[in-house]
Amino acid sequence: MKQWIIFIAGFLSFLAIVLTILILILGNKPFSDVEKTAIAQVKDENLLTEVSRSYVYSSDQKSVTVIGTDSEGKLKAVFVPISGQELSETDLDGKITAQEARGIALQDMEVKEVLHTKLGREENKTIWEVVFLTENDKLNYVYISAEDGSIWKRILNL
């Protein structure tokens, strides 16, 4: 009887691990596919020669942000809309960096953990989205202008 209990417990543990891995892989697949398509489009149109980073940015208009260097070696970001609108791009030389945006957003805040910092487009402006948790586990979004470092919008204590 004890062997059956051990066998069932072991089998259920194995099954839980396999299901967790499967859910994580399948859940991330749509994001991976969209990112790969966006990177291919940016390279096909010769907007960037090297890609250093890409991620999905969600706002009113979902897009993939692809960051890299162009043929002249300039650092650029290309915003590839998911729903068929036109690409837009911006030079990142002379703009606020992710680290600077984080510093501005987290100033005078009690931060427990920074969840992410993403570059995106909001109302035809290039914006850094800084998402973090405060010490009391409240979720916060701070949007920083990449042009001048001003705070564009704050959504605090969710």
TrEMBL record:
Ranges that cross the membrane: 6-26
Domain PepSY: residue ranges: 95-151
All copies of domain Cell wall elongation regulator TseB-like, residue ranges: 37-81
Keyword Cell membrane: no
Keywords: Membrane, Transmembrane, Transmembrane helix
InterPro entries: Cystatin_sf (IPR046350), PepSY (IPR025711), TseB-like_dom (IPR041401)
UniProt-recorded name of the protein: Uncharacterized protein
Organism, as annotated: Planococcus halotolerans
Taxonomic lineage from the root: Bacteria, Bacillati, Bacillota, Bacilli, Bacillales
